[in-house]
Amino acid sequence: MHLAILRTGQTNKAISDSFPDYPEMFARLLNRPASDSQPPQFTFTSLAVFDGELPAHIDDFDGYIITGSAAGVYETHSWLEPLFAFIRACDAAKKPVCGICFGHQAVATALGGEVTKWPDGWGVGVRDMHAADKADWMPEIDNFSLIYFHQDQVIKLPAGAKTIATSPFCAIGGFAKEGHIFCLQGHPEFGVEYSAALLEVIRERVGNERTDSALASLTRKTDADIVASWIGAFFTRAEKAEPMSLVSAG
Predict the structure, then answer these.
(1) Which end of the chain is more exposed for a tag (fewer CB within 10 A), N or C?
(2) What is the domain partition of the chain in residue ranges?
(3) Any catalytic annotation for residue 101?
């Protein structure tokens, strides 16, 4: 299955020489083999949306991953409206789209939801989410943890979407629409070392107390492997055009 990674951002320039960029992070996340003999499930093409690159047609690829970004969906970058239009075209055709962090916010905005800069500041470090109305590609657990880096939050869902992840800090930490939209605020692709280095780079913006707390949280094990399996299942099920059902987590 050939996926396009729509790059809306890149690793922070202060540490970019020491860590892979987002496309490699996602490739490593989604092609972790169950055994040494298992071939990669996905192939990837990276497109720099922030430089004006988008597929000529939604059927150029089997599905799309929209990455995180330092940008805000409410800003005036020239590449935002074309991205939103592309998301709407994918939605209309039920083409599978997975949005992560900024990508989660971009999909929500493009489809009529709402995003705001959160008054309580940054959500950083390892945080827990409750799987509210789980999509049927994410059945294993009722609660999961991921690494988070965000100031903005989705505060209104698009029509027809369901909240699938929630927490007291971030009420809409993930959402799904039918079987073709899957979005999460957290970063399953981020590793501990990269997250620690990024926290130090943005310490002044986040604040010392919240940065130190986030650094301490990185000792906790996350559920990135499980979430990676959800993303993989989402794309393979969408390819087979299986309808989504929502299962209450109770």
Answers:
(1) C
(2) 2-242
(3) yes
